[in-house]
Description:
Blueprint: E1 7-10, H1 19-29, H2 31-38, E2 42-51, E3 54-62, E4 67-72, H3 79-92, E5 96-101, H4 106-118, E6 124-135, E7 141-148, H5 153-162, H6 169-174, H7 180-199, E8 205-209, E9 212-217, E10 221-227, E11 235-239, E12 258-261, E13 266-270, H8 281-290, H9 306-309
Parallel strand pairs: 4-5, 5-6
Antiparallel strand pairs: 1-6, 2-3, 3-4, 6-7, 8-9, 9-10, 10-11, 11-13, 12-13
Amino acid sequence: MVELGRLEPMPLRSVWPNEAKDFTPWLASNLDVLGQAVGLALELRQQEYPVGRYALDLLLQDAQGRVVAVENQLEQTDHSHLGQLLTYCAGTQAKVVIWIARTITEEHAAALEWLNTNTITGVGFFGVEVELLRIGDSVPAPNFRVIIRPNDWTKDNRSSRADPIAWSWDAYVEELRLPRERVEVGRQMVEALSRGIEERDLPWQPVMNKGYVAIQRAGAYNVFVVDLWYNRVPRIAVKLPTAPGELNLVNPYPSLQDLWMAPEREWGWTVPLGGPIPDLDPLFDLALTYNPASGPMTPATAPTSPREQL
């Protein structure tokens, strides 16, 4: 008879001592494991996404472009995190909300069921328990068990794919409920970029997406991004092959708050509401330096000319 091993549970904190420093970064790098459990292809947008005074553990996006909010706990669920979950859902306009914990209590499972029954169509809540298992002295393996899932999830997914939204400035206000003042700043930035493209006779085109406008070159490669929804908005960003520090670049807008988004390779700046749109010539200099006429952006060495150093 074949001898079989026994699955043994391990304490979560034996592998992830700290939720924010250990578990959340691990999950951000292993979204395929969570995605397989909930049946979604997940893409990272930002860790510790600010929502007012609080920070959402993970802001994600699925293959349909829906915003996915993920809140983690290494203990059993509690009322505090339930309140945070609802705050994050409202603050990000998430269509998918995933609450991960060691144990989903009966009370909180019932609350998630109620939310799935009573919230608007197209918004769904998952309750997911996480555990660590091993056989003997083997390497521990994570296991996600879906306890609560949205009602009629398959039907809703089919419906959303069949009725895509044509994004526009009005749709940003009506569908995403973005403030008109913020959308107006975004429109002005896109218009300024379009003028710069025309003046330089560049074959680049604006493409409106859910929550942001991309300026694309041939092959649908992004050059600029005007972000109205995801990261410290409203934000204007340029694509770079690697971090600005590695390229020895000097910040062209020292008076604005800047942010380097490593996964997207975007160097961006928050543009205050009610203020002037910054001079975009430095962004065009960066884009023309590092973006090829066609094909993907390749790693670059640090620039040496004063123009490239800005």
